[in-house]
Design goal:
alpha/beta; single chain; five-stranded parallel beta sheet; three-stranded antiparallel beta sheet; 12 strands; 270 residues
């Protein structure tokens, strides 16, 4: 039986015409021309759903949204903890079989606290990343108890047209590793799966340091599909030779990734 997938994300998961009416969208107009991301088949989520042999149920992605409450909004919407966002993951009374969460980079990028001791419970749930991510997953599990929920970690990027732009591993005193640690810990607490792109030392090509270009979308799609399919993903491999590029390593080994299918391998150095 075909499964239905809902996407819960921010700007990199948006596309004009594919998100709820009046949602903030990044991939439209000039941004589509600049990135090459113009159609469903160009997006990471569209390609990923096709790899799974599934169907899109809802794309509940809002450009600029956070898990925590936006300080300049008087209500919780459009944060990931808002009931409206969570309710929009279903459509026509059909609930999703799979939910893929791609949220958190705007929390990190704007210096949202990971933890805080001087706030009451209500304030922590709104403004502290760990507490808000916990409340979001708690609401999702209550609303969609049968859904498989996958939490995607934050990942590093680069900009091919601007090689002088370096990816910052620390913003406002918080490292990307510390945010990903929270995502992993909270996801496991609520029995959700983690797709840890950062642990694979992935760096995604973008148009501006944040938003993937068409090639970046292809890589994301295959890596996230691999995370969902686990070992059952040989059909994602290149049909001919892999085109490996080095993406990381240390004095003892190199980490390589196929630029076409996203497959990772390590090579020991003598």
């Amino acid at each position: 039986m075909k499964k239905y997938v809902s996407i819960f994300g921010d700007s990199i998961s948006t596309l004009s015409g594919w998100n709820p009416k009046d949602y903030n969208v990044f991939f439209e107009g000039e941004n589509c021309e600049c990135s090459g991301v113009k159609e469903y088949s160009d997006t990471w989520w569209g390609q990923m759903i096709d790899y799974l042999g599934a169907s899109l149920l809802a794309n509940d992605s809002w450009s600029g949204s956070r898990v925590t409450k936006l300080p300049y909004y008087y209500r919780l919407f459009p944060s990931g903890i808002s009931d409206e966002r969570i309710n929009n993951l279903e459509k026509s009374h059909r609930k999703p079989d799979i939910i893929v969460i791609q949220l958190g980079v705007n929390d990190w990028g704007f210096g949202v606290d990971l933890s805080a001791q001087n706030l009451n419970d209500n304030e922590r749930n709104k403004f502290v990343f760990r507490d808000a991510y916990s409340m979001m997953l708690e609401k999702l599990k209550l609303k969609y108890p049968k859904a498989q929920i996958y939490c995607v970690t934050l990942f590093s990027t680069y900009t091919p047209t601007e090689p002088v732009i370096h990816f910052p591993k620390v913003l406002y005193g918080n490292s990307i590793e510390s945010y990903n640690k929270v995502i992993g810990e909270v996801a496991r607490k609520y029995q959700c799966e983690v797709i840890d792109l950062y642990a694979d030392k992935i760096s995604i090509p973008t148009i501006d340091g944040s938003h993937p270009n068409k090639d970046g979308m292809k890589i994301l799609a295959k890596l996230i599909a691999r995370g969902i399919l686990s070992g059952d993903c040989l059909h994602l491999d290149c049909q001919t030779d892999h085109q490996y590029v080095q993406i990381g390593g240390d004095p003892r080994k190199r980490v390589l990734m196929c630029s076409q299918c996203g497959k990772i391998k390590e090579e020991e150095l003598s």
